């Protein structure tokens, strides 16, 4: 039995264990999963001096309220998040992108994300988790991954099997920025849509609906007209692909997406914009901007370079 553990007082909304996900399983219907916001995931681990692929707790909107029992532990939270640390009768306002110490009987109350969706909690050590296909990432739709493929629940105990004895406080000056123009490359079924439909896709605003989760984001806007067929033979999907069903409203596939689908694909969100896209809350307004493959690759290289530069500052 581990002497170091968290007790969950309140699990929060969609709190799960995530890492970088699992690869090379699309052929058996298993998507990558993994952290939705890759940059904030990597920064959380670096702030606690962890390996870049260590599991963290990802939460949406409201995070967990945890009580800690055990030896001194270094912790960090990334994202745009409001949280407090309770030490006895004292409550301390927490700061994101800055590591801090939890001691026996301390409480960590992650109250909410601020005008964003996902936040990340990393510890200076390893959670005691079971891996499935070389990853602990939880896909609750398929019951795959650690915690029996389920969200965290109230009164659950989270054991810690190893603590890194590195208690140097780390801090990063970083502000999450919003994005409105989502850059995309044309999809494989782009020509299924009328010229007016294509114009609507690239010129009109779309609103993020409430029907958004780790599987995908449904958008609302003027109908995108299909002039060929609203259904196609099911074929492979990837993260970021944009499907348009018969109602004419786009659906963007996210980390836990199905690996095949039968709706025509009008575009694919470039990897450089994915982290900011997933943080858009219901009601947010977005526009799509076309780029070619060469530009998408250059933009991803710039995104990756910026991420590595941030990591190097910690």
Main attributes of the structure:
single chain, 314 residues, alpha+beta, Cyclophilin, seven-stranded antiparallel sheet, seven-stranded mixed β-barrel, 4 helices, 21 strands, elongated
Task: Describe what you observe in this structure.
With 314 residues, the chain is an alpha+beta fold. It has two domains: 159 residues, no CATH class; 132 residues, Cyclophilin, CATH 2.40.100. The protein has four helices and 21 strands. It has a seven-stranded antiparallel β-sheet, with no helix packed on it. The radius of gyration is 20 Å and the shape is elongated. The mean pLDDT is 95.
How large is the radius of gyration? 20 Å
For the largest sheet, list the strands in their spatial order. 7-6-9-4-1-12-11
Determine the strand fraction and express it as a percent band: 25-35%
Q: Biggest β-sheet: count, sense, barrel?
A: 7 strands, antiparallel
The helix-and-strand class reads alpha+beta
The tally of helices reads 4
SSE run: EEHEEEEEEEEEEEHEEEEEEEHEH
Give the rounded overall mean pLDDT: 95
In total, how many beta strands?
Answer: 21
- The dominant shape is elongated
Low-confidence stretches: none
The helix content is: 10-25%
Q: Give the number of domains.
A: 2
Give the end-to-end Cα distance, rounded to a whole number of Å: 34 Å
